[in-house]
Amino acid sequence: MKFKWILVVLISLTLANHAFAQPKIIFDTDHGGDADDLGALVMLHNLHSMGECELLAVMSWSSERYVIPAMDAVNRYYGNPDIPMGIRNRDYHHTDWNYNKPLADFLLWELTNDDVPLAVDLYRKILAEQEDKSVTIVTVGPLKNIKDLLMSEPDGFSGLAGKELIEKKVKEFVIMGGRFPEGEWEWNFSGDMPGVTRYVLENLTVPIVFSGFEIGSQIMTGERFNELDPGHPLYIGYKHFSKYAPWMEERYREGRVSDNASYDQTAVLYAVRGGVGKYWDKEEDGYCVADDEGGNHWVESDEPTNHAYLVLKKSPEEMSRIIYSLKLEDTREKTRGHCDHR
């Protein structure tokens, strides 16, 4: 009898550990454009350091000249310099209002764009190394890296083509993009790359959860970053973005960080903590159809699909407080005893 009780306890503990296993996250971002990408990356570092998730890799859709130095600087600031990064292509460019260069100018970094692999190759390497159905891919930018992965051929990392590799290794996609139930245009579904989103959604067969524009546009964060040390990545990035991003002109007050929508942070929050019934509800009775120009609409269906989208449940003010807490939670001292800045 005693043995049976011990066995029951051991089984219960095993099930509990499985139920609360860390999500394994690959983060795909257009870092340097809208400041919410920086906010989402900071959230992931804090959640990673708190043991709530494992950040496997960071992929850059952007090929902006300073994107890898900037993200490397953020990784090092939060004590996670070994998290691998990949970049979409080597066709580098620079835009003055982009906040990557200010981060690279102030913070310590070591890696350039030329020092990291192409995203499609890193995707294949990381996925091949993981257990089946164990990886959550969070995309908060346009989906060209995912299209490249879907179209990839067998190589030295895996004998599977991209589509089959995804089906074998990926548990779920969390996509910040689109407008639900419908919308004419949204940047992450456009990316000035006609047809990319449509191709991805038509070829992914694993579960997809969308956090649409309408979720993050209600949740404002940024103003509290004025209280941070001037050497903090959030202060550096959000202040430059507030002043120089063309669409922030009406909101900007001289010398101050402005509030900004928290689109990408919502995708991170769902990917790590879930929160269905707490933060949001989930609409599952249908599927998302994307057009070639960045628009989309939801088609209702009586048959099960692999698509769902989030519907905000908590008030925007409550969500703002939650997201602030995860961006401002300072986990650095738990991993490192000094401040990395120039």
Task: Give structural notes.
With 342 residues, this protein is α/β, with parallel strands linked by helices. It has a single domain, classed as Inosine-uridine Nucleoside N-ribohydrolase, Chain A. It has 14 helices and 13 strands. Helix 6 packs across helix 9. The protein is globular. It starts with a helix and ends in a 7-residue tail after the last helix. The N terminus is likely disordered.
Sequence-ordered SSE layout with sheet pairings:
Layout: H1 2-19, E1 24-29, H2 36-49, E2 54-60, H3 67-77, E3 85-87, H4 100-106, H5 119-129, E4 135-139, H6 144-151, H7 162-169, E5 170-176, E6 182-183, H8 187-190, H9 196-203, E7 208-211, H10 213-216, E8 220-221, H11 233-244, E9 260-261, H12 263-273, E10 280-283, E11 286-290, E12 296-300, E13 307-312, H13 316-328, H14 332-335
Parallel strand pairs: 1-2, 1-4, 2-3, 4-5, 5-7, 7-13
Antiparallel strand pairs: 6-12, 8-9, 10-13, 11-12
Helix pairs in contact: 2-12, 2-13, 3-4, 4-11, 5-6, 6-7, 6-9
